[in-house]
């Protein structure tokens, strides 16, 4: 009990520090594994230049670039971004987790990211996404230059939107593509692919011990396939919907999750879960930076959101859990 108390006290003191004070490394491991790694660091953070990220717009990402990794036995969180997103879409959450003692790794999903959207609406992107995350986890545990700081028994996952779909599939909920196909009434390429071809089994990974699933695409999941999930889940959903991300669908998924998931309902729209926008990003992409309702304060919400995510992972990945 005493060990658990002091361990929690440490994480709470870390959460009290300003976010985005983390170390950050950028990596490019082959043609299809590009992203960033956040980790605890005592150095002073600086702005990370958009060009260093391969981006034309300043997303407001800061950190201590290439700060030495000095700690050991750290839990690891892997991050799956949303539709046409990028590895830094949740940079404030990643930095807050790093400040709380985690290593966080995120990639650009090939063919479904802001720099390459060639497969964003193709069935292949839904099939390959879980495999992308297995490859990321393999890289972090086997090939990352600082891999010895990671505790391989303490692995978590954070998935948002299409990344929430990815996360649910990866932790055991085999998507019901037939169910989704029955709801397809248009002639889109995606619907045609669903109706015409055999779909291989998606990758799953038993190394993941806890997951935060944020406003996932709900149409692939039922009580039956969600019942296969055997790890703790924290589930976040927006109460204001956009298109296929409807609040009724995510509420149905929340009710169908097995066990006792930690469910949070947020009175805002889908993009509220993305990092608060820099002024340049707000001007360039107002759609993802404008919250509904207008009085919703994304920055204030993210202080609560990031703390809650860090607490969940700390509790579920702590020693002896």
Query: Which fold does the CATH topology refer to?
Result: Rossmann fold
Report the radius of gyration as a whole number of Å. Answer: 19 Å
Tertiary shape:
globular
**Count of discrete structural domains:** 1
Question: How would a crystallographer describe the biggest sheet?
Answer: 10 strands, mixed
Number of helices: 11
Could you report the average pLDDT, rounded to the nearest whole number?
90
Note the run of SSEs as H and E: HEEEEEHEHEHHHEHEHEHHH
How are the strands of the largest sheet arranged?
A: 3-4-1-2-6-5-7-8-9-10
* CATH level 4 superfamily: Alpha/Beta hydrolase fold, catalytic domain
The stretches of 5 or more residues where confidence is low (pLDDT under 50) are 1-20
Would you count the extended β strands for me? 10
Condensed summary:
The chain has eleven helices and ten strands.
Structural features, described:
- The protein has 321 residues and is α/β, with parallel strands linked by helices.
- It has a single domain, classed as Rossmann fold.
- Helix content is 35%, strand content 20%.
- It is built from eleven helices and ten strands.
- Strands 3-4-1-2-6-5-7-8-9-10 form a ten-stranded mixed beta sheet, with helices on both faces.
- Helix 1 packs antiparallel against helix 11, helix 2 crosses helix 11 and helix 3 packs across helix 4.
- The longest helix has 21 residues.
- The radius of gyration is 19 Å and the shape is globular.
- It starts with a helix and ends with a helix.
